[in-house]
Amino acid sequence: MYNILKAENLCKSYFNKKALQGVNLTIQQGKIVGLLGPNGSGKTTFLKIAAGILHPSAGQIVIDGQEPGVYTKGIVSYLPDTEYFLKWMKIKDAVQYFKDFYADFDEQKASELLKFMKLDVNSSIKSLSKGMKEKLKLTLVLSRKAKLYILDEPLGGVDPTAREKILDAIINNFSETSSMIITTHLVNDIERIFDEVAFINDGEIVLQGNAEELRQSKNKSIDELYREVFQ
Amino acid sequence: MLNLIKFELRGRLLTILGICFTVIIGNLFLMTKVGSWQIAVPILSTFLGVGALVVMFISTLTLMSDYLYNDQGYLLFTLPQSGVSITASRLITAVFEISIVAIVSLFMFCLLDQGRMLNSVLQSNEIYELLYSILMYLWTIVSVLTFIYFCIVVGRIALKGKKIGKIGSFIIFFLLSIARNGLTMIISNFFPQMVELDSFTTISFNIGSTLFDIVTFVILFMATSYLLEHKLDL
Questions:
Q1: Mean pLDDT for the stretch of residues A55-70
Q2: Which among A144, B84, B188, B218 is least surrounded, fewest beta carbons within 10 Å?
Q3: Cα–Cα distance between A123 and B22 in angstroms, integer?
Q4: Domain extent listing, chain B
Q5: Exposure of B35 by Cβ count < 10 A (0-12 exposed, 13-18 middle, 19+ buried)?
Q6: What Å distances lie between residue B90 and B16, B73, B84, CA to CA?
Q7: Under CATH, which number does the domain A3-229 receive?
Q8: Record: contact A73-B3, CB cut-off 8 A
Q9: pTM for this one?
């Protein structure tokens, strides 16, 4: 099967701190991969490198055969864990922004998702709650027909009802021709959608494999396995 | 790139309108004092215009620094846009914003002055001289901003922290300015040849230092674009 992302011996250092220490990870087309680990384990660093906004100190990462850059930014749909909207924007401005810059943006899909998330296009973004902003970010990111979706803590700071809604949106809008990598601390809520999981600690992958095979071989859920690995 | 300019201008609309509004109100107030304050009126109007331009110019520096130091950077630098596109869009937006304030300030001054200064400038200058002035105005803004943007980007990349990065950028700006001015003087001394255009009696420039300025601009523009695309870590 085709590998949309391939990282080999990927390293990233900040001064004397090593955030990534030789990460090897492959994501196949059509798969949803969970990148799981505690705070400071290197999850966000890895995703930022894949999104092209951080540069590795050593090693290599390729997406659709190319190093992160202008091309990969056009095929990667990245959901960061920050509130990145411009202060003056209304929801309709943010939709227009994505429409203008991303050739793969599907306006129809965005309208459906906004309706599903109960977001009003005329609302000012700064008036939205944290959960609503999270829903808006996810709406925009999932409205692209990207080859790779990178979701950093998509359930962060949202209530359980909203979590369900977000998970439904992810599942309903995922296509077999694309791939997805998700980081989260809420493993129990999201593990059902993972095809593969990779556990990362201190910048190294400590365990990875097919989610179902891991469940069967260890006789534990991914959430229980997570607690065991990082206890 | 046009989309980058469009969204940048949309976001800064209130700042531009605010500055223009202040210039207009200030000049309208001065118009009520034309008889009593005499010579002070055009001087104050000039100060008002220059002040507005300085404020607008400083404001355009945030076109680069905001995206480098705040979370909005995630929105800009994840776009499938090249470093050249991003740098060029900042410069074009800045020129546009400063020009709007300049035009409003000049227009208000002309109203205040009842067009006397404008008539005098038009009568005493050839059209080519006016075009040359406009060209120099554009060149000055673009070259100075490119120089400053380069220092901001180098400071951000070399020194990661917000405070230290900004202080570092200022120090880099200070040192590079000294180096550049020194080189310009050396080049002017080595190559004293001047160009004096026949049709412009008042226009002349040193060939060596002009070429040096153009080369410096191209290098700084390309370096800034390269750093934004290949070296910036958010």
A1: 94
A2: B218
A3: 30
A4: 1-124, 126-234
A5: exposed
A6: 15, 14, 10
A7: 3.40.50.300
A8: no
A9: 0.87
